[in-house]
Amino acid sequence: MPVRLMLLLLPALFLVACGGERPTIANDDPAPGFELERLDGGRTNLDELVGTVIAVRFWADWCPFCRREMRELEPVYQRLHGRGLEILAVNVGQDRARVERFVERAHYAYPTLLDPDSAVARRYGVIAIPVTYFIDRDGIVRGRILGESDAATFERMALPLLQPVDALSAPPLPPRDPQ
Predict the structure, then answer these.
(1) CATH for 25-162?
(2) Nearest 5°: CA angle at 49, between 91 and 164?
(3) Cys-Cys link to 132, which of 27, 75, 88, 145 (CB 3.0-4.6 A)?
(4) Of 72, 81, 78, 36, which Cα lies nearest the Cα of 54?
(5) What residues have CB less than 8 Å from 94, skipping those under 6 apart?
(6) Where are the domains positioned within the chain?
(7) What is the pLDDT of residue 28?
(8) How many whole angstroms separate alpha carbon 119 and alpha carbon 103?
(9) Which residues contact 120 (CB under 8 A, 6 or more apart)?
(10) What are the phi and psi torsion angles at 176 (to 5°)?
(11) What gap in Å lies between CA 16 and CA 93, rounded to an integer?
(12) pLDDT tens-digit profile of 15-71?
């Protein structure tokens, strides 16, 4: 097995091996709550974001796809943040200094959260990164992207969740009178 492939798989094996039985998060499950420190020093509690559409992205600096993907998602974030989208970039298993160096070079505006012991990643059943979970305004998981994503795929997953609540629950219009 090539060394490069082993280096990519080793952290994933660590996530599985250290967590006992791995939970499975499926569509329509409530999103596991968490509270993590942000890179800017504040804290983010997922439960306090109810009413917001959330994309929880698990990543690390050794991931060959993460930097490009994070830059590519920035314009999507800028377009959709005002409509209620929040992207949470959860770093898995790395120290603050290393994450700071990565973020300085990656240039994105959405919050970076620190999961230094990978506890939240294990709660979500993360075994490989990048992975993104889409959570609706009620805190329910509605989809995920396993592996690298592009802006179009990400936006296609997020847009239906951003529809106004009225549009999702409105009764159908009555048939038009043919006269």
Answers:
(1) 3.40.30.10
(2) 120
(3) 145
(4) 81
(5) 60, 61, 114, 116
(6) 25-162
(7) 94
(8) 21
(9) 32, 34, 36, 90
(10) -75, 145
(11) 13
(12) 444 445 556 889 999 999 999 999 999 999 999 999 999 999 999 999 988 888 999
At which residue do the structure tokens 């499926």 appear?
Answer: 26
**End-to-end Cα separation, the chain, in angstroms:** 73
CA distance 1 to 95: 28
Name the 3-class secondary structure at 27: coil
Question: What is 35-58 written as a DSSP string?
Answer: EEEETTS-EEEGGGGTTSEEEEEE
Q: What is the pTM of this model?
A: 0.80
The dihedral sign for the CA sequence 109, 57, 148, 137: negative
The residue written with tokens 């059943």 in the block is 125
One-letter amino acid of 176: R
Distance of CA 130 to the CA centre of its chain: 9
Count of residues making up the chain: 179
